[in-house]
């Protein structure tokens, strides 16, 4: 974070938070992070890592069994009446009465929301204006997600909790939602996002954490999280050019004509490769060079976390 970020008001704070379920199973085991005003913070993790269990504490749906959570300076469970009007929550399952039309659903919600946006505006924001009269039961899965989002945005929340906001949306719907989330953030909304789409976190998040089995295993910006992982260069050698002709240190990466090189010095390795190709008059088919993605970092982290947990066979 820059010093400017650090001076910004801390809007969400979790400190050594714990949550257990009946039977004593601890789903959240000492999680700490903070989110500044206007920041988009992503909570990522393996299945069952404890993301939803954590977010529910921030939304005021349950009280932590240990540690503290603060949203806008209040305890979200204990001071619910202070926090609830200022936050928007998009849950994984909206659970609307399916016989109501889209407009009726928004109006019903607006009835219990102070300072609600006009119904038409809320629907236009999420691209559902043309479906206003349709019954909820006739909406597609993606359209229901949009309705969930419209309801979360109805009260112009200062803090928005988005739990898997683009599940079921097609590629265009996903991009539209991303653009909307960016606009809200530009207007100063603080966003806490949980998602399984790492590309989504990469596109939107200022900072993120990755959880596994109730704990945070990595935290930082996307660049920080991916920095330690090698970049990748892929290409295919043309017929008649054996891998043995590649520079010595690049040969080991070849499997037949297909070559995949992993490197911590992308620029130097690429320069060496391209110089060799130019000098040898070799055309590299399908050449693709990229820094490590969040997805690769995530898979690495999940795999190494799982390996350290493996119980040795006696
Ligand atoms: N009501 C409950 N009672 C008992 N255990 C629960 C309950 N809710 C969740 N759990 C357990 O707590 C752990 C964390 O669940 P949680 O839903 O928070 O994970 P998650 O990271 O959101 O998972 P996913 O990515 O799969 O949605 C899981 O092992 C889950 O089975």
Automatic annotation (TrEMBL):
Source taxon at top rank: Bacteria
Domain ABC transporter: 12-238
Keywords: Antibiotic resistance, ATP-binding, Nucleotide-binding, Transport
PROSITE patterns per UniProt: ABC_TRANSPORTER_1, ABC_TRANSPORTER_2
Compartments it resides in: Cell membrane
Protein's UniProt keywords contain Cell division: no
Single GO molecular function: ATP binding
Membrane topology field: Peripheral membrane protein
SUPFAM superfamilies the record matches: P-loop containing nucleoside triphosphate hydrolases
Pfam families (UniProt xref): ABC_tran (PF00005)
Entry keyword Glycoprotein: no
Transmembrane segment boundaries: none
SMART domains per UniProt: AAA
Name of the featured protein: ABC transporter ATP-binding protein
Organism listed in the record: Streptomyces drozdowiczii
Upper classification of the organism: Bacteria, Bacillati, Actinomycetota, Actinomycetes, Kitasatosporales
């Amino acid at each position: 974070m820059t010093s400017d970020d650090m001076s910004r008001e801390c809007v969400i704070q979790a400190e050594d938070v714990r949550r257990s379920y009946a039977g004593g199973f601890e789903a959240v085991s000492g999680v700490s992070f903070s989110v500044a005003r206007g920041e988009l913070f992503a909570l990522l993790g393996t299945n069952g890592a404890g993301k939803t269990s954590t977010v529910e504490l921030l939304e005021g749906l349950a009280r932590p069994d240990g540690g503290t959570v603060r949203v806008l300076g209040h305890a979200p469970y204990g001071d619910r009446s202070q926090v609830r009007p200022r936050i928007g929550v998009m849950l994984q399952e909206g659970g609307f009465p399916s016989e109501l039309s889209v407009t009726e659903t928004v109006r019903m919600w607006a009835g219990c929301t102070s300072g609600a946006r006009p119904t038409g505006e809320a629907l236009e924001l999420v691209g559902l204006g043309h479906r206003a009269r349709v019954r909820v039961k006739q909406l597609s899965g993606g359209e229901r997600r949009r309705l969930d989002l419209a309801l979360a945005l109805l009260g112009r929340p200062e803090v928005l909790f988005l739990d898997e906001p683009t599940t079921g949306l097609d590629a265009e719907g996903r991009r539209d939602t991303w653009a909307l989330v960016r606009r809200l953030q530009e207007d100063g909304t603080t966003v806490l996002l949980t998602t399984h789409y790492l590309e989504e976190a990469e596109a939107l998040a200022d900072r993120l954490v990755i959880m596994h089995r109730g704990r945070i295993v990595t935290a930082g910006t996307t660049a920080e999280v991916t920095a330690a992982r090698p970049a990748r260069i892929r290409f295919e050698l043309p017929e008649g050019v054996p891998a043995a002709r590649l520079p010595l240190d690049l040969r080991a990466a070849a499997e037949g004509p297909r070559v995949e090189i992993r490197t911590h010095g992308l620029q130097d390795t690429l320069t060496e490769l391209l110089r060799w190709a130019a000098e040898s008059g070799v055309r590299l088919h399908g050449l693709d060079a990229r820094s490590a993605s969040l997805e690769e970092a995530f898979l690495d982290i999940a795999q190494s976390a799982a390996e350290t947990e493996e119980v040795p066979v006696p």
